[in-house]
């Protein structure tokens, strides 16, 4: 495993962000930040978070990758995009970035991409192995230029849930820059179908199914999740008390 200096710097920042609340107490701050232990501890937790998810062989791919949650957003806006073969769809990248981006599917497809055969685990008790192809999220973030205050990426989706609220999810910078975190436009060598999140979905392979946001419309870089929707970082986190960190 290669840990770049950049990784370490990002990692340390993200780890510190998680400690903000604790560190407000002077004694705690001193214990954390003055001790040489801190660096060791940060590095160790970083190593664990940076490990790769298991990848599988082509013959292990599930015959059917079932759909779960929304299987078609069915809104007028989404239907119009679908009818046009997603030619008018754009992925917006904004928030705490130095360059806002608006990317078409063909622009995304032209970027260097990555393929991975991984297992998706849903909390409802099923799993499926699929082969994903997509652009590393890291590539997009380097293009947009994250500002120093950015701590999380929020993924805004096209589908409305039963409650009338849109689906959304979020991850921290460690997961955002993880090599297996991709924006996938193909599943099992075919363009991503509507049931599995067309035209683009997140794959964040060290986490459970509900973090794998489908029907992506916008990625927003933020310094805090408190002011996004219900404030807990995702639709199911807001509405069903799912853990924000769903690492596996
Ligand atoms: N936009 C959106 N993303 C979503 C969901 C959803 O309902 N809407 N469901 C989540 C859940 S719980 C799971 S298990 C996976 C299912 O992905 P699949 O439909 O490709 O199996 O998508 C996740 N991402
Ligand atoms: Mo799920």
TrEMBL record:
Residue stretches making up the Oxidoreductase molybdopterin-binding domain: 87-223
Xref: InterPro entries: OxRdtase_Mopterin-bd_dom (IPR000572), OxRdtase_Mopterin-bd_sf (IPR036374)
A Pfam family per the record: Oxidored_molyb
PANTHER family recorded: BLL0505 PROTEIN, PROTEIN-METHIONINE-SULFOXIDE REDUCTASE
Listed name of the protein: Molybdopterin-binding protein
Species the sequence originates in: Sphingobium cyanobacteriorum
